[in-house]
Design a protein that fits this description.
Blueprint: H1 8-15, H2 33-41, H3 53-61, H4 63-69
């Protein structure tokens, strides 16, 4: 297993959750997006994947309900 390598962006996101209560990470496939977010989950953030169509639709069409279900930092 390859050891985890911290990324510079982690310090910014983890430092001030009041400035970044929700993080949406997009990018090319297989570059470490999920790994990064799962690592941040270990440090106090909630991890939610919008790969599930039902959850994605909840976030898109009922954001208030989505944020009732998933509290920030997220």
């Amino acid at each position: 297993m390859i050891p985890y390598r911290r990324r510079q962006i982690e310090a910014y996101i983890l430092k001030e959750p009041q400035y970044y209560p929700v993080v949406l990470l997009t990018g090319p496939r297989q570059v470490g997006k999920s790994t990064l977010l799962l690592k941040m989950k270990e440090e106090g953030r909630t991890y939610v994947s919008l790969d599930d169509p039902a959850l994605r639709n909840l976030a898109r069409f009922s954001p208030n309900l989505f944020f009732e279900r998933y509290q920030t930092p997220l």
